[in-house]
Specification:
This protein is an alpha/beta fold. The protein is about 30% helix and about 15% strand. The protein folds into three domains: about 140 residues, NADH:ubiquinone oxidoreductase-like, 20kDa subunit (Rossmann fold); about 40 residues, no CATH class; about 130 residues, no CATH class. Bound molecules: iron/sulfur cluster (3 copies).
């Protein structure tokens, strides 16, 4: 069996996606038998020139994780594309823009002011912010520029396969290993555009019972809940769960632990906008009888209990949302 040339490159990442690959435990040995690593700077001593110096198309499979936050992230993605026969977007950041893309929301202050000056935990009396150049021993060096927005990988390059999740879960990475095995022995790959996860919704994977008619009167923060029924769907218990709008494939990791799904596998193929789908599902479930008896002020109070609506409904997918597309007029470079 011919070994596969593999490159793993990264953009704006927390490196959790790298750790997820190492979470394969002993299965990682299968990966080492299957591939020749041509580039994986997080795990081995690779420099960007090692990727640049490969021949075009020399990499069989290029994996990219992290969002496109800096000009350097975009540049690395383009080099990976040129060197790779197929490219895989790995993790929620590369698939949808992920958590970094929440900063794309138009805000009255600049991102740097919020992050480096305003957050209560910041100790920065001189107001230092990241620079675009640095002078070392009289030589000025240009540093990677921060792009206007943090984007998903497909904003800058063509992608062949998608592996969502924050990070992708071991069963999904095992599916990727199986794909690599078939590729190594037969040269065959799944159809372009395949998402390596399930096609159904998380609700169909979650073992909790959904009553025929779900309704609820209030949103409750998980820390306010005295006792959670381990078998009943979380929504009638007042806990927001993104399951109705989210792709299955994680074996309902969070809901099994009494935690509402936060949507890290992104929407199913049938859903255009992850957050809007979830908002529409929740509003249709709000107890209608109670709703009719409520004043507008009381209704507002219920809705106001949703902490950080943007982060709740678009935690991982703001970079692919309709709202982002509407306000993002600047051409992506
Ligand atoms: S998808 Fe999650 S684990 Fe992977 S880089 Fe983004 S934030 Fe980190
Ligand atoms: S809404 Fe959440 S808790 Fe309820 S069935 Fe769907 S995934 Fe499970
Ligand atoms: S339950 Fe939701 S947030 Fe948790 S791992 Fe699965 S898709 Fe991600």
């Amino acid at each position: 069996m011919k070994k596969i040339n593999l490159a793993i490159a990264l953009g704006a990442t927390c490196a959790g996606c790298d750790v997820a690959i190492l979470d394969l435990n002993e299965k990682i040995l299968e990966v080492f038998d299957l591939v020749d690593f041509k580039f994986w700077p997080t795990a081995m001593d690779f420099k960007i020139d090692d990727l640049k110096n490969l021949k075009d198309g020399e990499v069989d499979v290029g994996i990219y994780h992290g969002s496109i936050r800096t000009t350097e992230d975009a540049e690395i993605a383009k080099i990976l594309r040129k060197k790779s026969k197929v490219v895989v977007a790995f993790g929620a950041c590369a698939n949808f823009g992920g958590i970094p893309s929440l900063a794309n929301m138009p805000y009255e202050k600049s991102m740097f002011d919020v992050v480096y000056k305003d957050v209560p935990s910041m100790d920065n009396p001189e107001g230092t912010v990241p620079q675009t150049s640095i002078t070392i021993k009289g030589t000025e060096l240009t540093l990677p520029g921060i792009r206007k927005d943090a984007d998903a990988l497909d904003a800058v390059i063509d992608i062949d396969y998608y592996v969502p999740g924050c990070p992708p879960m071991v069963p999904l990475i095992e599916q990727v290993v199986e794909v690599l095995k078939v590729f190594a022995s037969t040269g065959q790959l799944p159809p372009k555009g395949t998402v390596i996860a399930d096609t159904k919704t998380l609700c169909e994977e979650c073992g909790r019972t959904k009553p025929e008619e779900i309704s609820f009167k209030d949103f409750i923060s998980p820390q306010e809940v005295q006792e959670i029924d381990p078998d009943l769907c979380l929504i009638p218990q007042g806990i927001i769960c993104m399951g109705p709008a989210t792709r299955a494939g994680c074996d309902a990791l969070c809901t099994k632990m009494n935690v509402g799904c936060r949507g890290c596998l992104g929407p199913t193929d049938k859903v255009k906008d992850h957050g809007l789908k979830m908002i529409s599902a929740l509003t249709s479930l709000l107890d209608v009888d109670v709703e009719e008896d409520m004043s507008e002020e009381e209704l507002h109070k219920v809705v106001d209990k949703i902490p950080d609506p943007l982060g709740t409904f678009y935690r991982f997918t703001y970079g692919k949302s309709l709202i982002y597309n509407l306000h993002s007029e600047e051409e992506i470079k």
